[in-house]
Amino acid sequence: KATWTRGVFISWMGFTPEGLTAFGKGKRVICVSGYDLYHSLNHRIPLPDLLDAKTRHAAETGEPYAEFGRLYALKDKQFGTLK
Predict the structure, then answer these.
(1) What is the DSSP letter of 80?
(2) Strands 7-11 and 29-33
(3) Domain of life here (predicted)?
(4) Which one in 41, 55, 58, 60 has a CA-CA gap of 20 to 30 Å to 4?
(5) Helix (H, G, I), strand (E, B) or coil at 69
(6) pLDDT digits 0-9 by tens, 8-67
(7) What are phi and psi for residue 8, nearest 5 degrees?
(8) How far apart are CA 18 and CA 74, in angstroms?
(9) What is the pTM of this model?
(10) With bands split at pLDDT 50, 70 and 90, how would you rate the model's confidence at 78?
(11) Full DSSP string of 7-61
């Protein structure tokens, strides 16, 4: 398996702290919630851009999940910019 490969786990209802602990820090999994998808679509942020932001966060922190609001500062109702 290539070192750059990652898996995406999508949970419509989000993640519990226990669930995120089960994934473990430093694993090659990115977690996406229904909240993240809703706000990504609502603010016209393409899914690849959302995944890139989540991948960068995971690489920097080792955390498999960061809520949309931790990744993006919503400047207006239409577009989000990375924090």
Answers:
(1) E
(2) parallel
(3) Bacteria
(4) 41
(5) helix
(6) 999 999 898 888 888 766 678 899 999 999 999 998 899 999 999 999 998 888 888 999
(7) -120, 125
(8) 29
(9) 0.78
(10) very low
(11) EEEEETT---HHHHHHH-TT-SEEEEEHHHHHHHHHTT--HHHHHHHHHHHHHHH
